[in-house]
């Protein structure tokens, strides 16, 4: 590469990338990394980046430009320690109607209510989409707090993953060799499955907007 690629060089590159992200709120391009590192060839900078990705210091979401992210290992290399967030992670959307895919990507954190005693690392929040649970007060747009667990008793409100890998919030019943997911909306029919995966038990909710 023309220069030794040791821990000092790794730290130098990662530090400059981190400084760029902090200044502009988005990652640099390969050309900009080349300029920052005073290397003539963009291919050399690309090689550096690929080495850092392979070594676990960087990650790239896809093939597009400006999708580099510094991993926790990379942040440790540059001496950046993230403060531990003491909130409940908000991780996407779940259906209260027809099942939809719920993708777990953290969108933010929510302060832990005083009346919840479960360990924080066993909790997550989902935004509700749909109106199948409105008759027990779970409305479209509400955010439900879920205790992560793989079992449930009959009659409990759960977030369940169906055999089609779709997540939904319903009242759970196991009966007669099948699973019945019951919507709390008298205009909707029960859903029947041979098996579902319980993702967690709904223990509370937050309503961002009252009116």
From TrEMBL:
<dbReference type="InterPro" id="IPR036390">
    <property type="entry name" value="WH_DNA-bd_sf"/>
</dbReference>
<comment type="similarity">
    <text>Belongs to the peptidase S24 family.</text>
</comment>
<keyword id="KW-0804">Transcription</keyword>
<feature type="domain" description="LexA repressor DNA-binding">
    <location>
        <begin position="9"/>
        <end position="67"/>
    </location>
</feature>
<dbReference type="GO" id="GO:0006508">
    <property type="term" value="P:proteolysis"/>
</dbReference>
<keyword id="KW-0234">DNA repair</keyword>
<dbReference type="Pfam" id="PF00717">
    <property type="entry name" value="Peptidase_S24"/>
</dbReference>
<keyword id="KW-0678">Repressor</keyword>
<dbReference type="InterPro" id="IPR006200">
    <property type="entry name" value="LexA"/>
</dbReference>
<keyword id="KW-0227">DNA damage</keyword>
<keyword id="KW-0238">DNA-binding</keyword>
<dbReference type="GO" id="GO:0004252">
    <property type="term" value="F:serine-type endopeptidase activity"/>
</dbReference>
<feature type="active site" description="For autocatalytic cleavage activity">
    <location>
        <position position="132"/>
    </location>
</feature>
<dbReference type="InterPro" id="IPR036286">
    <property type="entry name" value="LexA/Signal_pep-like_sf"/>
</dbReference>
<feature type="site" description="Cleavage; by autolysis">
    <location>
        <begin position="96"/>
        <end position="97"/>
    </location>
</feature>
<dbReference type="GO" id="GO:0003677">
    <property type="term" value="F:DNA binding"/>
</dbReference>
<feature type="active site" description="For autocatalytic cleavage activity">
    <location>
        <position position="170"/>
    </location>
</feature>
<dbReference type="InterPro" id="IPR039418">
    <property type="entry name" value="LexA-like"/>
</dbReference>
<comment type="function">
    <text>Represses a number of genes involved in the response to DNA damage (SOS response), including recA and lexA. In the presence of single-stranded DNA, RecA interacts with LexA causing an autocatalytic cleavage which disrupts the DNA-binding part of LexA, leading to derepression of the SOS regulon and eventually DNA repair.</text>
</comment>
<feature type="domain" description="Peptidase S24/S26A/S26B/S26C">
    <location>
        <begin position="89"/>
        <end position="203"/>
    </location>
</feature>
<keyword id="KW-0068">Autocatalytic cleavage</keyword>
<dbReference type="GO" id="GO:0009432">
    <property type="term" value="P:SOS response"/>
</dbReference>
<dbReference type="InterPro" id="IPR036388">
    <property type="entry name" value="WH-like_DNA-bd_sf"/>
</dbReference>
<feature type="DNA-binding region" description="H-T-H motif">
    <location>
        <begin position="30"/>
        <end position="50"/>
    </location>
</feature>
<keyword id="KW-0235">DNA replication</keyword>
<dbReference type="InterPro" id="IPR050077">
    <property type="entry name" value="LexA_repressor"/>
</dbReference>
<keyword id="KW-0805">Transcription regulation</keyword>
<comment type="subunit">
    <text>Homodimer.</text>
</comment>
<dbReference type="InterPro" id="IPR006197">
    <property type="entry name" value="Peptidase_S24_LexA"/>
</dbReference>
<dbReference type="GO" id="GO:0006260">
    <property type="term" value="P:DNA replication"/>
</dbReference>
<dbReference type="InterPro" id="IPR006199">
    <property type="entry name" value="LexA_DNA-bd_dom"/>
</dbReference>
<dbReference type="GO" id="GO:0006281">
    <property type="term" value="P:DNA repair"/>
</dbReference>
<keyword id="KW-0742">SOS response</keyword>
<dbReference type="GO" id="GO:0045892">
    <property type="term" value="P:negative regulation of DNA-templated transcription"/>
</dbReference>
<keyword id="KW-0378">Hydrolase</keyword>
<protein>
    <recommendedName>
        <fullName>LexA repressor</fullName>
        <ecNumber>3.4.21.88</ecNumber>
    </recommendedName>
</protein>
<dbReference type="Pfam" id="PF01726">
    <property type="entry name" value="LexA_DNA_bind"/>
</dbReference>
<dbReference type="InterPro" id="IPR015927">
    <property type="entry name" value="Peptidase_S24_S26A/B/C"/>
</dbReference>
């Amino acid at each position: 590469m023309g220069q030794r690629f040791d821990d000092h060089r790794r730290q130098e590159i990662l530090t400059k990338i981190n400084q760029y992200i902090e200044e502009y709120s988005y990652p640099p391009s390969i050309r900009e990394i080349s300029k920052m590192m005073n290397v003539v060839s963009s291919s050399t900078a690309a090689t550096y980046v690929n080495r850092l990705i392979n070594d676990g210091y960087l990650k790239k979401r896809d093939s597009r430009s400006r999708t580099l992210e510094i991993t926790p290992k990379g942040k440790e290399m540059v001496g950046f320690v993230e403060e531990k967030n003491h909130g409940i992670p908000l991780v996407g959307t779940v259906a209260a109607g027809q099942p939809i895919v719920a993708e777990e990507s953290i969108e933010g954190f929510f302060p832990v209510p005083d009346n919840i005693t479960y360990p924080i690392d066993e909790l997550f929040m989902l935004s509700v989409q749909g109106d199948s649970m409105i008759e027990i007060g779970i409305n479209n747009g509400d955010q439900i707090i879920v205790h992560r667990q793989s079992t449930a008793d009959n009659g409990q409100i759960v977030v369940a993953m169906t055999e089609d890998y779709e997540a939904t919030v319903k009242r759970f019943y196991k009966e007669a060799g099948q699973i019945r997911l019951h919507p709390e909306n008298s205009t909707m029919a029960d859903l029947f499955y041979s098996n579902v995966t319980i993702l967690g038990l709904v223990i509370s909710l937050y309503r961002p907007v009252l009116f």
